[in-house]
Each structure stands twice: as structure tokens, then as C-alpha cells.
Design brief:
The chain has 680 residues and is an alpha+beta fold. Among the domains are: 195 residues, no CATH class; 98 residues, no CATH class. It is 16% helix and 24% strand. It contains eleven helices and 33 strands. The strands form nine sheets. Strands 1, 2, 3, 4, 5, 6, 7, 8, 20, 21, 24, 25 and 31 form a 13-stranded mixed sheet that branches. The protein has a four-stranded antiparallel sheet with strand order 11-19-13-14, with no helix packed on it. A three-stranded antiparallel sheet has the order 12-18-15, with no helix packed on it. The radius of gyration is 25 Å and the shape is globular. The termini are far apart. 50% of the residues are buried.
């Protein structure tokens, strides 16, 4: 390559990095903006940082053995070299002086185009333009921090990182058609709903439009429960349309029902669409960009180690990424050195099949029976007694390319993401240990994402998060900081991380729902079910990434278990915050829907409950609360703080808490006492 091509090129306020010949899968990086972070502020020994916003361009060969798993890649348009081209948005922070960094990139797999890890770990304030940096922990540690678009169907609005994916066509450019499914449960009566997943915003993102609105293949049904019988809604009562300024307009991205969709009811529409995106190039984009940073010395932000975190949807992305052997680049080299798949439960996702919708997950009242919680679940091989199949999540990841992995889940995922399946046999009768390069950590007493403290009962502007109890406010921040540090030490120095900590069948900390014990707390309704994982039949071509059964045929459920609780109702068997070791409340991984949004006997998506203890024995006796009151547990604020501090010190010794975070943790404990006990 000519030396001039390795230099930064200025043209119309745009910088372009050209990839070296050995890493041609990233063909170029276009820089759209570049600026110093917070006016050149120095972040500890790492010094000043710069922010880069740009776009990365890729070219992959369908003939390469490491691209064989990308569904429909062979049907995408090719360039003169026979490669498939696509591009993705880039957002990145890096030390201005490369030598002051720590040599590692912390890459967050974006959740629906967003960027959350900085605020989550560094404790920033989202209302402040510069607030995502908080106390600057990750920058002080010297990490390059990056995000790349991998999801093709995001709406254009907002500052999201997006993927531009090619469209698949048959030979001769013939259009490909297939069935697409959407389901939803409104929280209030509405006339119209988007065909795309509502988590992508009011428009549902870039959903697949209905190809022929009059097709007899288009069917709308309604039912009361996920497993309940579907009732067809007459075709004359609904249309592909959307009300605009009071006028109903035809719209192939929306569905309209005369009389309106009712809250708490499960609606499902199956319709014919055409021109599927080659969704799996999103997995290749993440792989190839990280390979470029790691192996190309002329990369825009070269690193030696690659750590990747994924939360919820993006945690499932990482499980899928490893399952389909994407951690070997086109040259067969290991890409990710360390992976933290957080709150993914037992899931993978709709990330690499024809007409896939990456945002579809599996919630208590939406996104049912998509290829999310599908076998296998454990990282080592396991047997499915129903089919006789024996396979593991990491079977395809060869020993030389498999990363070190943390699978972390909160209490919510055991109720809402079938998390027990990652460490039990498929029949739920025996415990199953992870492999030597993996750890499983159950972070007890937290919900899917941490609520603010003091907690509220409802979330303004989000009626679907209106629940019967106040949200669970237990903090995740300090766990994250310790886990990232543990992973860095494991990869860089070979220092073993803490042993796995999760509830087990053998010691009674993991149990079927029929044996789950929870105190009878006045005014608290308890769940009668959890999200299950099922045998799903998507049709004879499913192993090739093509769905012909839509909806799929639903077979026998796998055995899903939940953590057993102590006498206060707090979960056993996991890593316990000081809030659980010296409790002032019960903190659950479940919360039931408010009656005002329908289906009040069902669990809310993502939420846990905050159930404070009575302050005094008299108050407890008056309400008939079986849990001891605060006054019966602690003689004073000082005694409480002593026990709280002792619990925090234990976590430091176990390496689930950093010593430098102890003052902040203790301050949180004091705030909780003042708020819950009512004393200062």
C-alpha cells in the first residue's frame, strides 16, 4: 500500500482512514466529526480524550469459510471483487496519546442503537450534555470506548448507531418473499399499532412493510394469554393503515383496528413481505471492526485487547455471536478476548435469519415464540431429553478463538429470561457447571435495569412500566466496575476471577415455582408464572435460517426454575449487595402490572419490586407483615451502618466491589436508611 494512503486525508471536513491490505474487510473509516472531550480535560494518567463520530465501510466474501454462517449473504449484491459491501455508524472515545491508554477497547454492543455503558459504569447524568462521563472511571483507566451500528431496522430519529445492510435477491434479481410476524399488548386503548417492535419507538423502526395488503396470507388474531387459543379477527375489521391528523391513511408499516386494540390483550399479525435484509452482516460488522482495531497497526485506534459488553438485547447478541462462531475473523484469528453478557438470561435472538427482526425479545406480554430462548442454553454440551440432541452454546467456538466470558444476570432474568437454563440440565433436575473459561454470576436482588433511588411506582411517559409496586432501585454500577476490572486482570495478567456464584438445585437455592416460598406481605400480589423456553418448530428450513412456520409450532416447555428466597423474600444463591445482607426492604425480580393497563395478574417487563420493612414493631403488627421491622433488626443507625459496611468489605474481599468505591457505597447506605427508616 502506498504510504500516502496511510495518512489522514482531509476533504470537505471529513477524515478517511483506509484499511491495510491485510484487513480488507474494513475498507475505510470515514470521520464525520472529531473533538476533544470536555475541552481537553485530563482523565488521570490516561490524559486527554477525543471523541470520533464516523462511519465504517466493510466488504466480506461469501466464499470465506468464516462467513458461511451469514444467512443469505450469497444472495446480496457484490462488487467487482465478488465481495458484499455494507457500512455502519461509529461512535468512539480514545486517549489522544495512544501510549497513555491501557491498550484495550471496551466495546459496548449497542442496545437498539443506544450508548449506555459510560453512564451506567461512571454514574453520569443523562440530562447533562457532558454528563455521561460521571466520575470518569473508564476513561481514567485508559480504555478506548466504542460503539458500532449492527442493527438494520432502527428508526432514523435520534442519535443512534445504525447499520446499512444489503437486501437479498434470488438469481436474476428475483424478489424474495416470506411471512413476517408482529405481536403486541397495548397498555391503553389505541386504534393503530406499528408492525415493527414498539421498543424501537412509536414508528416501530424500519419494519418490513406489508407487500400485498389484500393477500389472504395476512392474518390478525387476539388472545388472552401467551399459550391461549387465538381468535381470528375478520379481515373487514382491520387494515394496514395509520391515522394522520384524524384521517386514516393506507400505510404498509402500521395496522389499524376498527374499534381499537384493547389494553391487556395479545394481538398477533402475520403478513407477507419482500426484500429481506441480510441481517447477519451486523454480526460480521462487529467482528470485523474489532479485528481491525486489534490487528491493523494503522487502525484509527489500535489496541491489543478487546473486551465486549452487552446488556439485555446486546447480551443476547453476544451469546448468539459466540454460538455461531463469529469470534474468528476472516483470517481465523480470535477477535474478542473477554465478553460480559449481562441480563441476557438463556437467550439468543433474531440476529441472523431471513426476515429477522433484531429487536424482538421475549417479554411477559409481547414478542412470544420468536427464536430467542432456544436450545442450547449451557456453554458446555447438554442433552435435550425431548429430541435427543446434544450440543452446547460454545461448540462452534474453537479453543483458540473462544474468549473468557462472564454470564451475569439479575433476579429479573430468572423470572423473565429463563436464566436458570444456563446452569441446569434441560430437564431442570441437575445443576450444570460452566466451562473453565466462563463464570456465571447471579447478582441477586436487582431488576433488569436499576431504577432511581428513592424509587417510584410508575415511569412517566411509559404506561407499560406502570406496576403494582415501586420499582427495585438496587444499584448495578459498582458490580460493573469490579467485573470489568476482574475481566481485565483475567485476560491481561492471567489472574483468575471470582468463582461462579449462582443458585443451585443441590443446595435448595434454586427451585421450581411450585416449591418457591415467599412471605405473605400485605398488599403484595405474587406471580403465578415465569417466562418459559419452549421447543419451537419454525419449519424444515430453519437450520438454514428460513422460517416457514409463522407462528411456529409450540412444543414442550423446558424446565425453568427460580431462586429460592429467605424469610424476608430476598433471593438466595447469588452475589448479595449490602442491601440484601443488611436489609431494609425486600427486593424482587418481579412486579405485576397495574390494573389500569390490563392483565393485572401478569408480570411487568423488566421490573422488580421494592417492598420496605415496617419501621416499628407496632406498625408491623398492625399491618400483619410477617417480616421483622427495622427497629427490631437494628438498635440504631450506627448499628445498621456497621453491618452494611461489613457486608461491603466482604464484597471487596470477594472482588465484587472495588475498594475505591467503598465511600460511595457507604453513602448510598446512609441515604437508604434516611429514606426508609425515616431517621437522620
Amino acid at each position: 500500500m502506498h504510504p500516502l494512503r496511510r495518512h489522514l486525508v482531509w476533504a470537505l471536513s471529513v477524515f478517511v482512514f483506509l484499511a491495510s491490505a491485510t484487513d480488507a474487510h474494513v475498507t475505510r473509516v470515514e470521520i464525520l466529526s472529531r473533538e476533544d472531550v470536555q475541552g481537553g480535560r485530563a482523565f488521570g494518567l490516561a490524559g486527554a480524550y477525543e471523541r470520533i463520530i464516523g462511519r465504517v465501510y466493510f466488504a466480506v466474501s461469501p466464499e470465506n469459510v468464516h462467513n458461511r454462517q451469514i444467512v443469505d449473504l450469497d444472495k446480496a449484491p457484490r462488487n467487482a471483487q465478488g465481495e458484499v459491501e455494507f457500512s455502519a455508524d461509529l461512535y468512539l472515545y480514545k486517549p489522544k496519546d495512544r501510549n497513555k491508554g491501557n491498550g484495550a477497547v471496551l466495546f459496548e454492543v449497542s442496545n437498539r442503537g443506544g450508548r449506555g455503558i459510560l453512564r451506567l459504569v461512571d454514574g453520569g447524568n443523562s440530562s447533562d450534555a457532558n454528563g455521561e462521563f460521571g466520575d470518569g472511571f473508564l476513561l481514567r483507566e485508559g480504555y478506548t470506548i466504542a460503539w458500532l451500528g449492527w442493527q438494520f431496522d432502527l428508526a432514523e430519529e435520534g442519535q443512534k448507531v445504525r447499520l446499512s445492510a444489503p437486501v437479498a435477491r434470488d438469481a436474476g434479481g428475483k424478489e424474495i418473499r416470506g411471512l413476517v410476524r408482529s405481536d403486541f399488548t397495548p397498555s391503553q386503548k389505541v386504534d393503530d399499532m406499528p408492525l415493527g417492535h414498539i421498543m424501537l419507538g412509536p414508528s416501530g423502526g424500519k419494519s418490513y412493510p406489508a407487500d400485498d395488503p389484500a393477500s389472504t396470507k395476512n392474518v390478525l388474531t387476539v388472545r388472552d394469554t401467551p399459550e391461549g387459543p387465538r381468535q381470528s379477527i375478520p379481515r373487514s375489521q382491520w387494515s394496514f393503515a395509520h391515522s394522520v391528523e384524524g384521517k386514516l391513511m393506507a400505510d404498509p408499516h402500521f395496522i389499524h383496528l376498527d374499534g381499537g386494540f384493547l389494553p391487556g390483550k395479545i394481538y398477533e399479525v402475520v403478513y407477507e413481505a419482500k426484500d429481506p435484509a441480510v441481517v447477519g452482516v451486523g454480526l460480521a460488522a462487529v467482528r470485523d471492526f474489532l479485528s481491525y482495531l486489534k490487528y491493523d497497526p494503522q487502525a484509527m485506534a489500535p489496541v491489543r485487547r478487546v473486551y465486549v459488553v452487552g446488556i439485555s438485547q446486546s447480551g443476547r447478541f453476544l451469546r448468539h455471536f459466540l454460538y455461531q462462531d463469529f469470534n474468528a475473523d476472516e483470517q481465523g484469528r480470535q477477535v474478542m478476548d473477554g465478553v460480559i453478557a449481562h441480563v441476557a438470561g438463556a437467550g439468543r435472538g433474531s440476529f441472523n435469519h431471513r426476515f429477522a427482526q433484531p429487536s424482538r425479545d421475549a417479554q411477559p406480554l409481547s414478542s412470544f415464540f420468536f427464536p430467542t430462548d432456544v436450545f442450547p442454553y449451557t456453554d458446555l454440551p447438554e442433552n435435550d431429553p425431548e429430541t435427543g440432541e446434544t450440543v452446547g452454546l460454545l461448540d462452534a467456538a474453537r479453543s483458540q478463538t473462544a474468549p473468557k466470558i462472564f454470564f451475569t444476570n439479575t433476579s429479573y432474568e430468572y423470572w423473565g429470561r429463563a436464566a436458570s437454563l444456563i446452569h441446569t440440565s434441560a430437564d431442570g433436575l441437575k445443576d450444570a457447571a460452566p466451562g473453565e473459561n466462563a463464570r456465571i454470576y447471579f447478582l441477586a436482588g436487582l431488576q433488569h435495569f436499576s431504577a432511581a433511588f428513592p424509587p417510584a411506582k410508575a415511569t412517566a411517559g411509559a404506561p407499560e412500566l406502570t406496576a403494582q409496586q415501586r420499582h427495585n432501585p438496587n444499584p448495578i454500577q459498582w458490580f460493573w466496575r469490579a467485573l470489568i476490572t476482574d475481566m481485565d486482570q483475567w485476560v491481561k495478567d492471567g489472574k483468575e476471577p471470582p468463582p461462579s456464584v449462582y443458585p443451585k438445585i443441590a443446595d435448595g437455592t434454586l427451585a421450581p415455582l411450585s416449591k418457591w416460598k415467599f412471605p405473605k406481605i400485605p398488599g403484595v400480589n405474587t406471580p403465578h408464572d415465569m417466562n418459559l423456553a419452549y421447543h419451537l418448530d419454525f419449519g424444515p428450513q430453519w437450520k438454514s435460517g428460513i422460517i416457514s412456520n409463522e407462528p411456529p409450532k409450540v412444543g414442550k416447555a423446558f424446565a425453568v426454575l427460580v431462586p429460592q428466597t429467605d424469610g424476608d423474600g430476598n433471593d438466595l444463591g447469588g452475589v448479595r449487595l449490602p442491601e440484601l445482607q443488611a436489609p431494609l426492604a425486600t427486593y424482587t425480580g418481579w412486579n405485576l402490572r397495574d390494573p389500569g393497563i390490563g392483565a393485572a395478574d401478569r408480570r411487568s417487563s423488566f421490573l422488580g419490586s421494592f417492598l420496605p420493612f415496617s419501621r416499628s414493631a407496632a406498625e408491623r403488627e398492625k399491618s400483619a407483615d410477617p417480616r421483622l421491622s427495622i427497629a427490631e433488626r437494628y438498635a440504631s443507625r450506627e448499628q445498621y451502618m456497621g453491618k452494611f459496611a461489613e457486608a461491603a468489605m466482604k464484597l471487596i474481599q470477594e472482588r465484587f466491589l472495588l475498594r475505591e468505591d467503598l465511600p460511595a457505597v457507604l453513602e448510598r447506605g446512609r441515604r437508604e436508611w434516611d429514606e426508609i427508616a425515616g431517621e437522620k
